[in-house]
Amino acid sequence: MGKRLNRLANETSPYLLQHADNPVDWYPWCEEALKRAKEEDKPIFLSIGYSACHWCHVMEHECFEDEEIARIMNEHYINIKVDREERPDIDDVYQRVCQLVTGTGGWPLSVFLTPDLKPFYVGTYFPKEDRYGLPGFPRLLKYLAELYRSDRAKINRQVEMIMNGLSMLEFKPKAVEGMDLSLLDEAAIHLLDDADMINGGFGSAPKFPNAMNLMFLLRYYRMKGIGKFLDFVLFTLNKMADGGIHDHIGGGFHRYAVDARWMVPHFEKMLYDNALLALLYAEAYQVSKDSRYLEVMKDTLDYMLREMVSSEHGFCSSQDADSEGEEGKYYTWSIDEVRRLISNNDGSNSSNEDADIFCAYYGISEQGNFEGKNILHVSMSIDALASRFNKSRDEVNAILERCRRLLFNARASRVKPARDDKIILAWNALAISAMVKGYKVSGDSRYLDAALNAVGMIEAKMAKGIRLKRIYKDGIAKIDAYLDDYSSYINALLDLFEVDPKSIYLERAIAYTEHMLQHFWDSSNDLYYTSDEHEQLIVRSKNPYDLSTPSGNSMAALALIRLYHYTHNEEYISKAESILKAYALHAAENPFAYGNMLNVLYLYLKKPIEVTVIDASRDGRELWKEFMPECIVLTISKDDLDRLEGIPFFSGKVSIEGKDLTAYVCKGFRCSLPLHSIEEVKRHILEEA
Prior knowledge:
Shape: globular
CATH topology of the largest domain: Glycosyltransferase
Number of domains: 4
Largest sheet: 6 strands, antiparallel
Number of strands: 21
CATH architecture of the largest domain: Alpha/alpha barrel
Distance between the termini: 70 Å
Strand content: 5-15%
Structural class: alpha+beta
Number of helices: 25
């Protein structure tokens, strides 16, 4: 007999559906649940997580699948499950409560609320029985239920203390009137002070990629020409590419490393991480011209195309850390398994040697490096490997490539980690931007096609007029889009416009921008995370930090700067300046929380260079391979120019008869004379930069 399903069975979120057969009487976040809590005067237990969260799975198995614990929950609480990826506004509010009360946060997030949604107790993971210094969950449930029933005054005092603390945590911008390049100096120095010069990256374990901060250091290197900043970024990228955080068989990156050496990852794969890292490795290739970074970018984008694209061309959210109930099982190998796959391929002595080479290169040993199994990581250089086995570099690379294919094919027969196949607008926008960048630097049209298809899906399924939805799954678009959804998607449309200059992309970007400014703008000169039409929570947050993903405010400032240069609409640059003035000092003082804001500040302070290449020969696409983060580059045909002549960016720019290429480099309301070679264009850009 099958398990009885609860209300979550009617949801589309994979995370909520994972809990649909729990004996807990779960509600999704809905008016029915909130109304019932008030009518019955019951506290709310709010549980927030996401589908790829390992400890969310642990707590579900230990607690939410337990009949006795479920009985306590159902008797004393209104129980609500929230997917943080669907409702980041709810998660943001109560994560701040958790940080305030416990000094830390994370998922699963466990919050006990009064019926009017005010928190009185908060934590993250709770075990079934007392351990790790944490109270057992059933004991905690009983204690708080009795406290709520018998000592409401104590509950109210706790609520008042938390709400007062929450109001004190409200972000208060340190607005500055004047902004100059010294802000970037301060931020770069702070970042390098925390650099790990032995292992790459910042700080110690756990270690996250911090893609946006590394992008900023590339920009700072371009501005100052100080080699140690570039050296550190490339050193970090090499360490990440060599480490276990990088999937050497299937491509892409895991979410973070639990150690300082990038060796042992937390195995979940997130769409946003891979999109941002693809952008970072593409920029590293543009700066260095080292093909290794191009290859890492390509294998990351190829992973996304292979594993993360839905049947309707959107990008799915994540892949789980676990498969068959074990973390990392899909990605790890025993030495016997590897040797059998390689050596038994043809049974020859050369295959045995191939296995030796492969195991030596990827550090595969009898004892392993993860619970008796091996996480592949590069443990020696190709040159050292070639010398050890008396082979050429080309021979070694061919052997490694053949062996990787063998393991890839073998791994394909394993049970895959679960995929969260909901489409999140902001994350899809990052993926679209990464695909466009991949097309620019590699010329591979598959990436452009993927970007075009994703935009087509969003416009068809997630847009209604100038309003956007955040989530799409199973034919249903839901939840009004948040600030990061609008601002990231606007930038993705502008990225697409720069490689496929159809006016519809610019027109849609402008329309969404107007809606964003009308419904998200705050008179204090930045933007709220939710629109004025959104459900009101206990606070209306701004969520200003660039952490795992770029903040809505930083992406909005970027979009407004870019749109100003296309349209010459003064409101756009004025509002971009307001946002930057609100955050610039914070970004300089705490760059780890404002990586993308620093990148936008760089663009603003350097004053964007407008580059228009009217090009019949397509030579202008060579500019796409250059690292020019202060430039807005449009490579168009004469027919494109005729169609776009009403856009102020193109005003006064004409194709010179008899020339295959005519280009203009403009900055600060002045333009070059017509240029007729890419070398001339590059020289003028360097002079202006």
